[in-house]
Amino acid sequence: MATKAYAALLRGINVSGHKKVPMAELRTLLTELGHGDARTYLQSGNAVFTSALGDEKALAAQLEQAIEEHFGFGVDVLVRDHAYLKAVADTCPFPAASLEGRQLHVTYFSEPVTASRFASLDAARYLPEEFRLGDRALYLYAPDGLGRSKLAEALAKPAHTKGVIATSRNWNTVVKLVELTRAQPA
Question: Which InterPro entries does the record cross-reference, listed alphabetically (predicted)?
Answer without folding.
Answer: DUF1697
